[in-house]
Amino acid sequence: MVLREKHKSNTRHLRQLREKGEIMAIDKEELNKGLRDMRNSIFEQIEFMQHVAKLESAKYLALIENGFTEEQAMEIIKARPVI
Prior knowledge:
Layout: H1 2-20, H2 28-65, H3 70-79
């Protein structure tokens, strides 16, 4: 019962703020689009980082193939990342 009254109070307060122009009502479709965009952005970032990891791995192996020790190659990778 207390939670229900608190919810009603919060709802009234939000309505009053909207009426005063202190906050804007958010369109549900606009909110959903924003959430979809954020989710897609996260997936794009993950895909990008997978490509970066492949580049870093190739660079590491190339350094070793060209005479650097594993430790030296790792230090170079840490000091000069691909991105």
